[in-house]
Amino acid sequence: MTVNDDELDLLLTLLETRRDPSVAELDGVGHALAFLLGDRFDAVHGSADHLGSADAAIHIADKAYPNWVVTLHGRANDRDGHWRCTLRETDAFDKDAVIGAGRSPVLAQAILAAVMRLAMQARA
How far are the Cα atoms of 84, 93, 123 from residue 98, in angstroms, in the given order? Predict the structure, then answer.
């Protein structure tokens, strides 16, 4: 399977702007993450059935980047949540070579966007 940067950009836009992606769209996200992460991809939690769950997204982040710091910001009572997620190797600011960042109205999608961005940077 090959995924090009334009496809990855479209999937990131989907994750960061849509509230209710279809199962087919989430399947595309799962395939892209499998491509980017290789054997670090959690296939059990990475199926389209599970990708809408924040628990599954955290499992994916944990398997791909164990012991990395996951920071979540958002307001659960806002209509669209406005969630932000960052993945950093350490708690110390200005020490990380790469940082994954994602934002979305849906918590799980913010986490997945951060994982995808981090994986894209590592691939570059």
Answer: 17, 11, 11
Mean pLDDT of the chain: 89
d(CA 48, CA 29): 8
What is the chain's length? Answer: 124
Q: Output the six-digit token pair for 69.
A: 């710091």
C-alpha radius of gyration, the chain, whole number: 13
pLDDT, tens digit, 9 for 90 and up, residues 70-87: 999 987 776 666 899 999
Q: What is the pTM of this model?
A: 0.91
Phi, psi angle pair for 81, to nearest 5°: 70, -50
pLDDT band of residue 58 (cuts 50, 70, 90) is very high
Tokens found for residue 56: 């599954």
- Would you give the distance in Å from CA 121 to the centre of its chain? 13
User: Alpha helix locations (H) across 3-90?
Assistant: 5-17, 23-37, 54-64
